[in-house]
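ZP: hey, is the pyridoxal-5'-phosphate complex queued? I don't see it on the tracker
AM: it wasn't, my bad. submitting now with these inputs:
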Amino acid sequence: MAAKEFPKLKLDKSMAMFEEAKRLSPGGVMGIRRPYNFVQGEYPIFIDRGYGGHIVDVDGNDYIDMLCAYGPIILGYDEKEVNEAVKRQMDERGFCFSLVQPAQNELERRVVDLVPCAEQVIPVKTGSDATTLALRIARGYTDREVVLRCGYHGWHDWCVENHGGVPASTLALTDEFEYGSLESLEAKLEAHKGKVACVIITPVGHPLAKPVEEPTKAYLEGVKELAHAHGAVLVFDEIRTGFRASLGGAQERYGVTPDLGTFGKAMANGYAISCVAGKREIMQVCESKVFVSSTFFPNSLEMVAALKTMEILVREDVPNSIWKRGTKFLAELRGEQPEPAGRAFTMPR
Ligand SMILES: Cc1ncc(COP(=O)(O)O)c(C=O)c1O
């Protein structure tokens, strides 16, 4: 089929801002937002605003944002209820203190209610904070150092894809296995026998630059059995799947509960918050042995945003609606007949 011709986008303002950005900051914009990751000259760089599922660039071009800001925008860009809750907190209470506000307990209670592995919760800020904390907890709990990983887990030293600036001694403690292959995981566990602190895996496979792979329950169960047989903590990195694959994450959808889970992105519809949730026995190393603290971790604006986002996700049954629409969209792209009702999922609770 001949590709449809579209007029070339006008991107003059984006390009001019990018020239200035390169003078102000190395490379202008960081990492995956750099133009070389896209079709150069055919993709905007600076965004002016967002509304609903759309973004508008500084040249006035309007797009449907299929990336959802790399995941967080699960309810749309101008979700009034979430923003109003945040404004109320800002105006009536404030949000940055040396001590914690009650919103923290409320949020942790909500995560415990929704997420199967969550007996205790630690709120942090970014996905990389959460995956790195999960690792530290696993190392503290097992008194071991090696980490087996699979997929993208953030920009911190132990897992960054580009090794510039990272000590070789840090990288030597992390080894990768192949998503979908229990043999690959078993071989790595054998190679590092008795030294593996944790196996961290994105339950739905999305190794960098490879297609997304849906797991079978048997595969995730196999990963869990192998990790436990070797005395390692199993961490599901649910930064992408959390509050999206189902309300309780991929662990709920596929029925396999890990020891620890990391959540972020969709959790607060764009506000910067993430968390580690997991079994009390393991999380308890943070009572004294393992240190976790940051000036902004207890800030409550993001907690209030997360609470409101979760309320809407539950009330509107958002994950099911995403599955239905996604299934229909994929079927149409493939030229298949969509199932009339999509692929609905009943939450097992
Ligand atoms: C599975 C997964 N883990 C961790 C991260 C890191 O999160 P952040 O970019 O918020 O640090 C990402 C980010 O895309 C991710 O997809």
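AM: back. Residues 80-315 form a domain with the Aspartate Aminotransferase; domain 2 fold (CATH 3.40.640.10).
ZP: great, adding it to the tracker
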